[in-house]
């Protein structure tokens, strides 16, 4: 096969790099074939984001069409219409193409500047896993404070209100937000690994990709509107999930964090009737003590 095709390059790369695994050879062939790292990283990032975003959201849209899942819908009276979902999909795509796409070409130079590795072999699964776990924790803290700030009057009215258009969210609504909000909250997702790399000097761009994929899936699932018996929150009680974020959309207040429940718990910003009841009981108890 000719070397000017991707598969031809892959065959050539495979011949001389027998120590690399299949995924590493695919990766090396991509960068060799493209001969332009900025373009190679840019195209890969954009295609990956779109595929994951729309693929995962489509999965939730299909779940919405299956009657079996209706019993797991959190706000069961509010079913998003097909028109609403199409409109949301179109507006998110428009924002991806006009706001995200121009910025994505800065991604490779940014990674190079901060010393992220793009070479093969890849880091071990163990290393990727613990680094990603750290990014989840850092991003969640950033998200909590920035999201909470966005509920302050002027910021809410001018920026965050757009995201709250859907009081009963669905997967596609995860990134339905003002471009300013996408940039501020997106900084937590892109900035956490960059800060980590500045401190440790040890991060592969693949780890960053897997982290972004997991974070995008987390955001979509949190907006899905479905609390399934096998949702992660049932196995990891501190995981936020859909149940946590759905209440935020329903009540417009409380539950500001993204992935975990600890910030809202510790700072007493949990949303929902149970949290209000606990708050009331605490208040009554302290009033009784004061008497
Ligand atoms: Zn909000
Ligand atoms: Zn939301």
TrEMBL record:
Gene Ontology biological process: lipid biosynthetic process
Domain of life: Eukaryota
GO cellular component: membrane
Localization annotation: Membrane
UniProt entry tagged with the keyword Transmembrane: yes
Keywords, alphabetical: Membrane, Transmembrane, Transmembrane helix
Domain Fatty acid hydroxylase: 133-269
Membrane among keywords: yes
GO MF term list: iron ion binding; oxidoreductase activity
Pfam families in alphabetical order: FA_hydroxylase
InterPro entries in the record: Fatty_acid_hydroxylase, Sterol_Desaturase_Related
Name this protein carries in UniProt: Fatty acid hydroxylase domain-containing protein
